[in-house]
Amino acid sequence: MHRMKIGLVAAIILLGLTLGVYATLTRDLREGAIRDVETAVSRAQRMHQSMARLESLDFANLVAGLSHHPAVVGVFDKGSETARRQAAFEQCEALNASLQTGSKRKADFVAILDSRGTVVARDLNANANYGEDWRSQYPAIGTALHGEPTKDVWTFAGRMTRVAVAPIALPDGTIRGALVVGYVLTARDAQEKHEILGSEVAYFHNGKVHTSSFVSEGTGDGAKEPAKEDGNKTQALNAILFQSPEKWGQQVVQKGARSDLFHLTLDGREYAAVAAPLQGNAFDKTSGVVVLASITDQLDSVSGAGAKVIGFGLLAILVAVAASVLTAVRFIKPLDKIELGVAEIINGNIDYTFKPIGPDFEGLSNGLNVMLARLLGREEPSEDDVEEEADESQRWRSDQVLVEEISPDGQPSNDPTVQSLAQENEAAYYTRIFSEYVAAMKSQSKPTAGITVQAFTAKLRLIEGGLKQKWKARMVRFRVITQGDQVTLRPVPIF
Predict the structure, then answer these.
(1) HEC readout, the chain
(2) Contact 87, 78 (CB under 8 A)
(3) Successive 10-residue mean pLDDT values, the chain, 495 residues
(4) Could you tell me if 443 and 482 are in contact, meaning their C-beta atoms sit under 8 angstroms apart?
(5) Phi, psi torsion values for 204, nearest 5 degrees
(6) What count of other Cβ atoms lies within 10 Å of the Cβ of residue 455?
(7) Out of 88, 350, 376, 491, which could bridge 112 as a Cys pair, Cβ 3.0 to 4.6 Å?
(8) What is the distance between the alpha carbons of residues 299 and 294, in angstroms, rounded to a whole number?
């Protein structure tokens, strides 16, 4: 099992690298994503300001052109008040109908005022707002009655309304009255800006967010069903701009300049935002626009990239573990078998033969078998000998060597036989004991095929080594004893 630690260490390293790459990558991507969103919001805010200026100029010029129509100027040539009111009503209706061209919508109101700034008539209902003094309510009327077309934002009928006012004048420059055209700022207007800018847009006026481009989920089907505004987000944005400690909207109104870029949370999602005054208004200074972009949406892609890194890391870990397992199957298990074989030989089984254990270690197995054969003086095995089981009943095996058990007293012996064994030359001793053992085995019809001096001596040395350590003897010699049909070796400890 300890050999599997290599695979486990590799897996741990890969896991650490994966987590490190994930942390570094997601941190860098997160920081980059936030910077990108903030940059996009700032750019969108600048674009909106430029668009607002151009739209204000176009709006004022459009109404100025309408105010010069002869029929509009001729309203004040009528002889009676009733006739003027009827002519003014008809012109307001006609002008509003002409405004609805292509994708453009009709104005929310069109009104003609006299030279005093009071309402003569408006579209839809000739009696609506009749006689009201708009000049005292809206400074833009006074500017127009002085001969200058202008654009402004009013709170009209409780709604934020873009208004353009132009003078109605004779060719000699005499001011007869003023033409007023107003469009309520709607969620559709904000959504159109969102499509152009790529950022959410919300408009505020007089301390309140009136509309935004946020849409409710599940609404909107192109031209058939316009998307509905998400009122909850609009109200939440209103609270942040005018009721939070920072009061970003109020700061813009007070300073008359754009705010710093700030972050806010709506419906559990983080946004980057910039608030700024709404450009192109002649007198109104309470109107503004907020441009927002979702940081959370951008970070979702970062999370996706991080998930891919984790996925690849886990895949790499699985590959490493699988490679480790395959290595264990192909290399470690065969090595374990070789190690067990070596242990068998160490423990005295000098007849052990290494079997083929796969193509990677076949050469090693054969080499070990040849080495044992040469050391033990036996015939070198062929591949067929290794793979085919021999008839063991006709061959001598080292485990057939029987050793008598004795209990020595640990004292030197004065027995001449023992003294003779102690003084006998080692080479002569092993040759003699081998010859006596083989003769005794043959006399008892025991198998002797395959026995060699080297193999017998190696076995004897292994037994001697164990007994010497057990008895603390200086050496151990043996005598060959034949008892009945058994051939045994009687150990002779020499202290």
Answers:
(1) CHHHHHHHHHHHHHHHHHHHHHHHHHHHHHHHHHHHHHHHHHHHHHHHHHHHHHHHHHHHHHHHHHHCCHHHHHHHHCCCHHHHHHHHHHHHHHHHHHHCCCCCCCCCEEEEEECCCEEEEECCCCCCCCCCEHHHHCHHHHHHHCCCCEEEEEEECCEEEEEEEEEEECCCCCEEEEEEEEEECCHHHHHHHHHHHCCEEEEECCCCEEEECCECCCCCECECECCCECHHHHHHHHHHHHCCCCCHHHHHHHHCCCCCCEEEEECCEEEEEEEEECCCCCCCCCCEEEEEEEHHHHHHHHHHHHHHHHHHHHHHHHHHHHHHHHHHHHHHHHHHHHHHHHHHHHCCCCCCCCCCCCCCCHHHHHHHHHHHHHHHCCCCCCHHHHHCCCCHHHCCCHHHCEECCCCCCCCCCCCHHHHHHHHCCHHHHHHHHHHHHHHHHHHCCCCCCCCCHHHHHHHHHHHHHHHHHHHCCCEEEEEEEEECCEEEEEEEEEC
(2) yes
(3) 68 85 82 92 95 94 95 94 95 94 88 96 93 96 96 95 96 95 96 95 96 85 70 94 93 93 94 95 94 91 78 84 77 78 74 75 79 70 53 72 87 86 90 92 87 86 89 92 91 91
(4) yes
(5) -125, 155
(6) 22
(7) 88
(8) 9
Asked whether 12 and 18 are in contact (CB, 8 A), the reply is: no
- Classify burial at 270, counting beta carbons within 10 Å of its beta carbon; exposed 0-12, middle 13-18, buried 19 or more: middle
For residue 178, give the nearest of 121, 129, 258 by alpha carbon: 121
- Edge-first strand listing for the sheet containing 402-403: 402-403, 486-494, 475-483
* Token code pair at residue 198: 């790529």
The letter for the amino acid at 328 is A
Q: Among 471, 469, 462, which Cα is nearest to 346's? A: 462
> Cα separation of 306 and 313, whole Å?
10
Strand partners, 482: 487
At residue 4, the pLDDT reads: 62
pTM of the prediction? 0.65
Nearest to 120 by CA among 79, 77, 165, 75: 75
Q: Which string of b and e fits 276-309 if b means at least 16 CB within 10 Å?
A: bbbbbbbebebbbbbbbbbbbebbeebeeebeeb
Q: What is the pLDDT of residue 388?
A: 46
